[in-house]
Amino acid sequence: MISLQDYLRERQPQVEARLRQALRPEPGFPESLREAMTYSLLTPGKRLRPLLVLMAVEACGGAEADAWPAACAVEMIHAYSLIHDDLPAMDDDDLRRGQPTCHKKFGEALAILAGDALQALAFQVLAEGYPLVTAARCCAELARAAGAAGMVGGQVDDLAWERASGVERTVERLEDLHRRKTGALFRAALRLGVLAAFARGTETVSPELLHCFDGYGRCLGLLFQITDDLLDVEGHAEQAGKRVGKDAARGKPTYPGLLGLTESRRRAQHLSDEACQHLQPLGAKADRLLALVEFVRQRDR
User: Fold this and answer.
1) Which residues of 235-262 are buried (b: 16+ CB within 10 A; e: fewer)?
2) What one-character-per-residue DSSP string does the chain give?
C-alpha cells in the first residue's frame, strides 16, 4: 500500500477533476455564477472530506466509481458553508485557503448565491449518481449533517457564544458545538462512503459497520477542530491558509483558551487513540484511515 502522503498527492487532483466536471456549463447557468462557484470549490485544499468518502468505500471493498458522487457532494456542502461563514454578517474573513474569500473577490450578493447553488448541486449530484434507495439515504444523511441539528446549528451556537455576554463556556458545551459545526460533516462523509460502497450490490449495510465509521468520524472531527484551534494560536497564515490569532482576538471559545496548550494536545492524543479503537474491527482494511488520524493530529506541528 502506498504511503498516505502519496495517496493524497494522487487523489487530490482526481477529486478536483471530478468537481470541475460537475460544474460544466449548461443552458441557463450564468457564467459569473459558475466562476464564483468554481473559485470557491477549487481553491487549494487537502480535500479531506471527499477523501474520507473514498477511504470509506475502499475500506468496505466498494467500487471506486461509486465513491465519486458522494465525494463531490460532501465537498460542495463544505465549500458552500465556508462561503457563508466568511461573510461579514458571520465570521467576516477576507482570507480562505490562502486566497481572498469569495465575497472579497465577487461581492457579497454573488457569494451568497454561489453558496446557495453549491448546496443545491450537492443534492442533485447524489440524486443522479446512485440507485433510488441509496440516493435517498445519502441525501437524508447529508441533509441531516448539514442542517439545523448539524453544521448550521453548530454555526448558530458559535455565533451566539461569540456575541452573547454571560454565556457559560465549558469544554462540554464547546465539544457539543463542534460535534455539529465540524464533526457532523466528517461523520457524514464516512457514512456516505459506506452507503456508496453497497450501492450496487444485494448485501445491506450493517448497523455495526456504520457504528465503526461513525465513532471514528466523531473523534476525527473533534481532533481536527482542536488542531485547528492550536493552529490559530501558534500557526502562521501561510500554514493555516487563513488569518491566525483572530479567534482569541474576538473572544471566541477555543480549546487552548479553555484548557491551555498542553491539555489541548493531551485531549488531541486521546481522541487519536479513540478514533483508532473504533476501526479495530476492520483490521488491515482501515490502515489508511489510521494513518489519516496521525496526519490530522500533526497539523499544528
Assistant:
1) beeeebbbebeebeeeebbbbbbebeee
2) ---HHHHHHHHHHHHHHHHHHHT---TT--HHHHHHHHHHHSSS---HHHHHHHHHHHHTT--GGGGHHHHHHHHHHHHHHHHHHTSTTTT--SEETTEE-HHHHH-HHHHHHHHHHHHHHHHHHHHHHS-HHHHHHHHHHHHHHHSTTTHHHHHHHHHHHHH-SS----HHHHHHHHHHHTHHHHHHHHHHHHHHHTSSSSPPPPHHHHHHHHHHHHHHHHHHHHHHHHHHHH--HHHHSS--SHHHHTT---HHHHH-HHHHHHHHHHHHHHHHHHTGGGGGGGHHHHHHHHHHHGGG-
The owner of cell 502506498 is 2
> In this structure, how many other beta carbons lie within 10 angstroms of the beta carbon of residue 231?
18
- Could you read off the pLDDT of 191-226 as tens digits, one per residue? 999 999 999 877 889 999 999 999 999 999 999 999
**pLDDT tens, residue by residue, 108-166:** 999 999 999 999 999 999 999 999 999 999 999 999 999 999 999 999 988 888 777 66
Domain of 111, CATH number, reads: 1.10.600.10
Enter the pTM of the model.
0.92
What is the distance between the alpha carbons of residues 254 and 21, in angstroms, rounded to a whole number?
38
Residue ranges making up the domain that contains 256: 4-300
Percent of the chain with pLDDT over 90: 79
Domains held by the chain: number:
1
- Calpha distance 237→170 (Å, rounded): 28
